[in-house]
Structure formats: structure tokens, C-alpha cells
Amino acid sequence: MATVSDTAPMLGQSRRSGSKTIHPASLESPSPAAAASPYREVKHFKKWFSWLIPTFVVANIVMFVISMYVNNCPKNSLSCVARFLGRFSFQPFKENPLLGPSSSALLKMGALDVSRVVDRHQGWRLITCMWLHGGLFHLLANMLSLIVIGIRLEQEFGFVRVGLLYLISGLGGSVLSALFIQSNISVGASGALFGLLGGMLAELIVNWTIYANKLAALSTLVIIIAINLAVGILPHVDNFAHIGGFLSGFLLGFVFLIRPHFGWVNRRYGPAGHPSQSSGAKFKTYQYVLWVLSLILLIVGFTVGMVLLLRGVDLNDHCSWCHYLSCVPTSRWSCNTEPISCQAVSIGNEYTLTCSNNGRNSTYSLFNPSQSQIQGLCAELCR
Q1: Does 278 qualify as catalytic in the annotation?
Q2: Which of 242, 261, 274, 323 is catalytic?
Q3: pLDDT tens track, the chain, 383 positions
Q4: Catalytic residue among 190, 248, 294, 372, which?
Q5: Largest distance between two CA atoms of the chain
Q6: 77 is catalytic
Q7: Which of 50, 69, 152, 378 could hold 342 in an S-S bridge, CB 3.0 to 4.6 Å?
């Protein structure tokens, strides 16, 4: 996945070989005396060492390992995938095709469940769900994307701004997801990742004057975003988290990723005696306008979203077509998200489970089964 910096080199900048600092240069050829003058470092364009994004990747991997330890498939399920891994083995494919833990294990770890946020005041789930993943495939896809996108952004803008962009976007994704998805749990770093993509798009717009090949950079980034959002219309993918994260990151990009224009940088940091025709303003007028509007929209959006969520509002009741943004039913798949439940009848060690969703039933020989084990069997029966 190409980033803006890969496809759109900045206009009027030069890099010294081996240097991690970008120095703006005038479009006109400098005089010999000016060329001999050493450049001063420009802090607004320096290269940062990326350590926060790799730390986030490690944290997500550690949380997945802990989730698998808590899941303990051999104890709670009759069949497991890769049973040789012991308590780290995966739930059956019918229950979790992503090679991961059960829903009950994810709930214990902090998955987003709207009823628990609203009724039990567990608002912390809006944050913890960002660090959990539904399976090994889910984890690998998100972490590879985070490495490709996040490290470049952190190198360009530093760990503070990119870290805040990641976390706040993830929260925005969780809030929008909770307002629309009321019956299922939600986990994953996708909202935060889409926030980084939204931030990249905003950065290209707000720093438009310093980019060469502007249209090529914009079209490439828009195509990448469109493809990723299109994947979200598949079943069992929380596209509301993607959309909420993207919108949050897009607005945050105008706030966090703004750069001074090169005319101001040339005037301030250019070599002695070098002519400059730039104005005295550090930022252009449109940059100030975008900064103010984005900050206002962010504050209003998060405030309204949290108020609606804590009041238990289901936005599907006010938007009859919005569910198509997350899943579009076709002849190949269904978008039914009805919660899975079973009726259990026990005679001695014989347990007969009947799925309330599709009417299927099966009998199992179980000795003092746990609730997690029964839930796992129910999930297999209903899928």
C-alpha cells in the first residue's frame, strides 16, 4: 500500500545524502555565495525515529496471545483447531473461521458490547476493543497494514501526533460502531488504521502547495481508501468502525498534520543573502480555516456521539438504509446478525441443544460442562 510520500514527492525540497532532515530550497538557482552557506536544520520537516507504531504492533500481538490463553479451547470445546498448541489452540472453524478465540473469551478481554457499555457503564470497552482481534488472519492483516502506513507517518510527523491520531480515531470508530451494531461484539484495530488513512488524505489536502504530482497522489490515495471501504461491505466486517475511524482521522489530520508552507520556511531557514518573496504568515489562510472547522466538527461529533451512545440510542431506528454501509446482502451471503442462542435439555450426561436461529438440534455426551463449552457447541450448531 503506497503512502502519500511514496507517490508524491514534495516540491522545492532537497535531501542531503545520509541526512534525516529535509531542507527546503528555492525554485531559483542560488548564487555561489548562497550555495556555500550551510543550511540550518528545519524542525518542521525532520525525520523522526519510529518506535511507537512498532510498540503498538507488539502490544496487539501480546493481547492476542493472552486472549488465546484465556480462551483455553481444550477445556471449553469438544473440538479445536491445532490442538497440539494446548490451551493456545483455536476454536473450531464453524465457530471462528479466522483462527482465534471464542466470543466469550473476547468479552472477558474487553470486546465492545453495547449493552455492557450502556447498562453496566463499561465505557472502557470503547478503548480495549481496539487491542483485540478475532483471529490470527484478522491480526496479521491489521498489523501488516499498521506497519506499512503507521511507520511512514510516524517518521514524518513524530510519535505524539501519530499516536494521538491512532488512538482518537480508534475511539471514533468504536463510538460509531456502537451506535449501529447493537447485537454483536466488535474487536480490532481497523478503526484506528482507517484513521491513519483519513489522516493521510487530510495531510495531502492541507499541505497541498508543497506537493508535486498532486492529482496522482490524490487519486492513488482515494483508490486505496475506496478499496478498503468496499471490503467492509462483506459480512462479519464492521464497516461502521472503518467509517467512524476514517472520518475521525480525516478531521484530525487537518489539526495534527499541518505543515508551514515552503515560502515561510525558505524565508526563515534559507541561506544568508538568499532572496525570498514569501509572505510573513507561517500558514496559509485555507490551512487556518480547515484547522478551525475540523476542530469544531471533532468536538461536536464526539460529544453528540457519546451522548447518544450513553442514552442507548440505536441509529438504525433513524436510518433505514444505513445498515447497507456495513453489509450488502447477495445471493452468496447473508447479512443476518441475529444473536446466536440455543435451548438446552439435559438428561444425565446427555445434553440436547436446539438452535433458536435455524431449528437444528444435536445431542452431546458431556460431564459437568461449563457455560463456555455449551456456548461453543451452540455456536457450531447455529452456523
Answers
A1: no
A2: 242
A3: 443 333 333 333 333 334 443 333 333 444 444 443 333 445 556 788 899 999 999 999 999 999 999 998 888 787 888 889 888 999 888 778 888 998 889 999 999 999 999 989 999 999 999 999 999 999 998 999 999 999 999 999 999 999 999 999 999 999 999 999 888 888 999 999 999 999 999 999 988 877 777 788 788 888 888 888 887 776 667 889 999 999 999 999 999 998 877 666 666 655 555 555 555 677 788 889 999 999 999 999 999 999 999 999 989 888 888 878 877 777 665 566 566 677 777 777 777 888 776 677 777 777 777 676 777 777 666 76
A4: 190
A5: 96
A6: no
A7: 378
